[in-house]
Amino acid sequence: MTPLFARVTVAGVGLVGGSLAVAARAAGLVGEVIGYGRGEANLRLARERGLVDRVAREPAAAVAGADLIVLAVPVGASTALAEVFRPHARPGAILTDVGSVKAGVVEALEARWPERGLVVGAHPIAGGEVSGAGAARADLFRGRRCILTPTPATDREALARVRALWEGVGAVVEEMPAALHDEILARVSHLPHLAAYALVAAFGETRVAGRRVLDYAGSGYRDTTRIAASRPELWRDIALANRAALRGALVEFRAALDRLEGLVVAGDGDALEAAFAAAAALRRRLGGEQ
């Protein structure tokens, strides 16, 4: 069976990049996979775990002859990395990414790649607060949505090949405009991370009658704040890159908190229960429950 891509470079062999590499190899979608990154220990682990065939720390060696280059780095680093790779990429090489923000990132990548039509924005909605090659797994994308954000310039064959890659590793692929993607993800991904960070920061050093309140945190607090253990630099870049949409989401969230605060202050138990019941019903739908 001829692979979809003969040679793939994955820049950033962490949870997402490493999982894509090992899943694509297992499915026979790729020939050779080269892992690129700055961390020698992480690259060594990626090689030892069989996520990649070989590793490179120099841009020229990393992308030489690659049919596909995957940017699996924080969104703030994508543009600069594309510029570093550009002189060494072969003609016809497709450039894609896995970033959680699309509009500004894809526009910047198109402006810098030799053939702008060969830039295909992608965002697999899968991951977690763990990171590094040690966290990668082949089933990470199975049954999970992956959003592609083609632009008017996108080459249709390049788009079809990137779609086939994600479908081949088990993802459910959907296409939408980049700006729409960013508005949606601001509310269901980016804002929840800010809320988790804020909830930890609000009470992190709080003491009541000399007792540190976090010492009494149970499963509810731990579950709600789990994603606050995510990489700070990753979410810094995301928040800044999508700040317009994120600001709108913050306004909506603050209004919802204000409504609940008003009901608590008023002692309106019936209205408070109704609000909780409505939210609980929505949450059950999110989890596929009836």
Summarize the structure in words:
With 290 residues, the protein is α/β, with parallel strands linked by helices. The chain folds into 2 domains: 5-176, 3-Layer(aba) Sandwich (Rossmann fold), CATH 3.40.50.720; 180-286, 6-phosphogluconate dehydrogenase C-terminal like domain (6-phosphogluconate dehydrogenase C-terminal fold, Orthogonal Bundle), CATH 1.10.3660. Helix 4 (75-85) runs parallel beside helix 5 (103-112) and helix 7 (178-203) packs across helix 10 (243-266). It is elongated and about 65 Å long. The protein has helices at residues 15-26, 40-48, 59-63, 75-85, 103-112, 156-168, 178-203, 219-224, 232-241, 243-266, 269-286; strands at residues 5-11, 30-36, 54-56, 68-71, 94-97, 119-120, 122-124, 145-148, 172-175, 207-208, 211-212. It contains 11 helices and 11 strands. The protein has a 6-stranded parallel beta sheet, sandwiched between helices. It is 50% helix and 14% strand.
